[in-house]
Amino acid sequence: MESKDDGSGLRCLVTGATGYIGGRLVPELLEAGHRVRCVARTPDKLRDYPWAAEAEIVKGDVTDAESVRAAMRDIDVAYYLVHALTSGSGFERTDREAARIFGEQARASGVRRIVYLGGLTPADVPERDLSPHLRSRAEVGRILLESGVPTTALRAAVIIGSGSASFEMLRYLTERLPVMVTPSWVSTRIQPIAVRDVLRYLVGSAHMPPEVNRAFDIGGPDVMTYRDMMQKYAEVANLRHRLILPVPMLSPGLSSHWVGLVTPVPASIARPLAESLRYEVVCHEHDIAHHVPDGPGQPFSFATALSLALQRIREARVTTRWSSASTPGIPSDPLPTDPDWAGGSLYTDVRELDVDASPDDLWQVIEGIGGDNGWYSFPLAWAVRGWMDRLIGGVGLRRGRRDAQHLRVGDSLDFWRVEEIEPGRLLRLRAEMRLPGLAWLEMHAEQREDGRSHYRQRAVFHPYGLLGHAYWWSVSPFHAVVFGGMARNIAQAATRKTAGAGA
């Protein structure tokens, strides 16, 4: 990056740009006239974002000091938006080490300010008694504030926006259960905040004077219980009043599984959310307004935040979702591309068909797969597989799609994730259901010499140990129905599309 003296704004580093908040912050910073560098472990996940061509994208990992040092070069403001919750049981240690590295490298590189988004913690609860999730967020904030670099640590409770995990949890619980038995935390007082206000405070924090080095509580104007939030959602969404019956014996662990069964949010994500809701999380100050002034109607009311989120969903303009970030326990290894791969067994199921449809129509069917469109074969089998995955703590089928028609690398798609997409030609999905191995599904659209299409579908499985081999051979008898049916039905849907267009 060039010197900021050219008047083109601050030079900002954004970590966590593939996540829910980071993916929305980058275009806000660009709109404000800043220059943005994003650091990501897998830069390709950002290549299809609408703003990708306007930002600098570099490879790096916040746990690797050398890559953080390289990413910090010539940076004025560094945004720390990562959280190691998805790394497993040792996430607190990982969070601690990553924050220490980030602070040290920011200081060594002459970064003028760190901006961190953490969680709002109750004032009267000792840190040691907090949930691991909240405790780790508080510790990261403290490490960054003590780094020697002026730091703004924003502390938010429940963030309400289209696609946020908190919003999705609230939405599905309220819409699907007109009568519900709930954990006692539905009576806890909370101060939610609209994602638009969070982004406004994040962007505005870049300009804080150097003497400011502190945490700020950020929240909307409404303090309410989770029960109140569900009833308000029902009102805004024009649903009937909900009957809510709290049951004290539902622990955070049990309630997280309950949330995981009812909503698209898996138990692994629901648990830290549920644990956080055990405590009253209400702002004790609004000093952020001295540095980032609120305009008329700001911060947004809870009802307004809900209305804006629902409008985004109706208009299919959800730019990022909670599932944009990785999920605990899922694989991330790339597909072995060598057909004679030497890393072990590699099972495949290949289906090919000539299709009496245009390549464009075939591609539209391929790219529209999943979510409400389903998987074009034996819906009951897919539904049962999704429920089985939810019961053992996986993501299941209910994550759906971010966009009904278009996909980009990194998108979650039910219990798959888009690993590669070559528009008009190739869609490769990586499985994120619980499996004794790694799995991929590829769909190719190719043009024939006569102008029609050829469809090629390949399922790939890399087993882990004897259990993985046993799994493949136990399900292989069903492949003709599941994968064979999928190939035939995709071809038929494309053919109907072409025939309809020519009618």
Automatic annotation (TrEMBL):
Gene3D superfamilies: NAD(P)-binding Rossmann-like Domain. Residues 16-157 form the NAD(P)-binding domain. This is SDR family oxidoreductase. It comes from Streptomyces argenteolus.
